[in-house]
Known about the structure:
Elements: H1 2-18, H2 21-28, E1 33-41, E2 44-52, E3 59-65, H3 73-84, E4 88-92, H4 111-118, H5 123-139, E5 143-152, H6 154-165, E6 171-175, E7 192-199, H7 201-204, H8 207-216, E8 221-230, H9 233-236, H10 244-262
Parallel strand pairs: 3-4, 3-5, 5-6, 6-7, 7-8
Antiparallel strand pairs: 1-2, 2-4
Amino acid sequence: xxxxxxxxxxxxxxxxxxxxxxxxxxxxxxxxxxxxxxxxxxxxxxxxxxxxxxxxxxxxxxxxxxxxxxxxxxxxxxxxxxxxxxxxxxxxxxxxxxxxxxxxxxxxxxxxxxxxxxxxxxxxxxxxxxxxxxxxxxxxxxxxxxxxxxxxxxxxxxxxxxxxxxxxxxxxxxxxxxxxxxxxxxxxxxxxxxxxxxxxxxxxxxxxxxxxxxxxxxxxxxxxxxxxxxxxxxxxxxxxxxxxxxxxxxxxxxxxxxxxxxxx
Length: 264
């Protein structure tokens, strides 16, 4: 019975991730400059979605790491929403080149196809993709030179892990993502801000150990847990059919996000 319930929950999550017409419609109405760019490192090409704020001065840049479902319309919408808040934002498609004819997320047939491919991505390749994205936005004339990395679910865990790889990022924004091995946290230099859901035992079970490891290494880690929210609340809280708890958590997380980025 428990297995059936888990399968049903996963199917519901995948279905919610796939049905993003509301995200696409919002994105199509954006007045901001949004574009696709292809970044190259070695023999690899990574397709990325990039957005610019309507601002007079130079802006902090945010590199967004997508969920396990790949670079969906919702993630592209988050690029636009960070741009609306006054930040340059870029989201690499880490599934670039994994689909038919070298395609990425859009060619994999939906959440199940993306999930099947993403688990096999080498960590060294993910880090190199992120290095390329960080370097690209940092070089932009409109960028202040400060670059933050943030991610959701799979991307939240990869954000935490990337902070152990690149000590030069200004901050890490971890949305319901697990922490790295305790032996690696000493390499983290950036402050890590965590955004977690109350109803997410799978991720939250590891939080005490992560907190202890960060404290022992004298590294900054500030996790906040949002009451009543479920895993994926940043997406689910934007969905018109989302629960009130998820919508409230999303709104509170955005307020906190803007305060964090405003202090950099």
